[in-house]
Q: What sequence folds into this?
């Protein structure tokens, strides 16, 4: 049975990727490597944890000798790398942890794969999961990020992801490591840690807390349902061209304020509240430093070359997401209390 290593599989997107590969690919044994930081949670994978083709490995990608042993002792057919520090606000207050995990951690994985796969690269694949934020920000409506758009990272988070992308391409060029990269827009869906916009707003609406909208709420993001991203990763892992990059996006742009109002209306209905009750919680707060104005992806290459398209309309995806949080209040409570509480509260200090 071919072994696939997925890093960061206990996190938001990683858990959906692990589930998809465990359930859709019984021909693989999936190894989920995760350090279980504040963002990683094995609760996200309860439904597949006893599957015969699944193994969890706790470990840190920053630990070079551990990574080297893991990859040299297991004959991994592929590596799908998602482990990262992923929150822009945290990167503003603590850039170095982003350098360590996102840059050093990625290079540790590349070095280990290069060594273990030397002389036997055929059929192997190192898949690096990246973000559209490496392209910087857009201003003009009707302009989009293409795979050829020049990198222009503007936050410590996007700078660390851009740096890791460059290392992945450099290992392909220099050592012929078989790599593929995708750059995706903002994801939403179940198991999203409630420090990011959509789950934070759901959490605060539920708890009647202020809904902090940065600046004037005019920044624009392109939202994609997380299961569509996991399906794109599956397609690119199997059909993508070595050395290529694929943009993934939802063609679904929303200003933050319109999105928060849509969510408020949806939650009013679900919670039996009067219309406008949740929106009254909206509070404009100091803007994020260096806040990127607009992200929008052109995913034509992925749809034309590999046949992937988003499957869900936003309203449907958002309703599924809200329903998941309403049915999993215990998950929400657990990740914002107990051992996670310090991490959770710390982000408020950053505002
Ligand atoms: P997340 O923060 O929810 O999860 C990250 C996971 O990585 C967690 O399980 C955490 O425990 C693990 N991790 C962190 N540091 C680690 C380390 N040193 N060693 C091992 N494991 C470690 O992140 P996410 O939102 O699921 O993002 C996953 C990947 O997708 C990231 O690479 C991110 O840059 C990329 N991405 C995210 C989005 C988005 O909208 N969330 C969009 C495009 C790309
Ligand atoms: P976020 O979910 O952090 O993703 P990213 O910054 O990687 O796009 O934020 C999405 C947008 O929402 C971004 O423009 C910042 C804004 N935002 C708020 O207005 N309030 C908040 O509390 C958060 C977390 C984000």
A:
């Amino acid at each position: 049975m071919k072994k696939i290593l997925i890093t960061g599989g206990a996190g938001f997107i990683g858990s959906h990727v692990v589930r998809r590969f465990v359930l859709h690919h019984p021909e693989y044994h999936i190894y989920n490597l995760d350090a279980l930081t504040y963002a990683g949670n094995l609760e996200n994978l309860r439904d597949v944890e006893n599957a015969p083709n699944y193994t969890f490995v706790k470990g840190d990608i920053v630990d070079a000798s551990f990574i080297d042993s893991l990859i040299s002792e297991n004959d991994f057919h592929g590596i799908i790398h998602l482990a990262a520090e992923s929150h822009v606000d945290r990167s503003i207050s603590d850039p170095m942890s982003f350098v360590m995990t996102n840059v050093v951690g990625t290079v540790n994985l590349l070095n280990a794969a290069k060594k273990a796969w030397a002389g036997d690269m055929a059929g192997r694949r190192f898949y690096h999961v990246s973000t559209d934020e490496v392209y910087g920000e857009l201003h003009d409506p009707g302009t989009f990020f293409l795979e050829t758009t020049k990198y222009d990272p503007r936050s410590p988070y996007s700078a660390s992801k851009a740096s890791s992308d460059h290392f992945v391409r450099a290992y392909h060029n220099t050592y012929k490591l078989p790599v593929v990269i995708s750059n995706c827009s903002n994801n939403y869906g179940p198991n999203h840690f409630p420090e990011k916009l959509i789950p934070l707003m759901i959490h605060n609406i539920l708890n009647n807390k202020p809904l902090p909208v940065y600046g004037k709420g005019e920044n624009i993001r392109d939202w994609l349902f997380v299961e569509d991203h996991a399906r794109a990763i599956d397609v690119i892992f199997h059909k993508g061209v070595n050395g290529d990059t694929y943009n993934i996006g939802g063609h679904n742009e929303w200003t933050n304020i319109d999105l928060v109002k849509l969510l408020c209306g949806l939650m009013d209905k679900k919670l039996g509240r009067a219309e406008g009750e949740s929106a009254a919680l909206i509070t404009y707060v100091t803007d994020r430093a260096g806040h990127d104005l607009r992200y929008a992806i052109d995913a034509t290459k992925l749809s034309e070359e590999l046949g992937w398209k988003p499957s869900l309309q936003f309203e449907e995806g958002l309703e599924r997401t809200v329903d998941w949080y309403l049915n999993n209040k215990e998950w929400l409570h657990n990740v914002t209390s107990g051992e996670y509480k310090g991490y959770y509260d710390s982000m408020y200090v950053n505002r």
Observations:
- The chain has a mean pLDDT of 95.
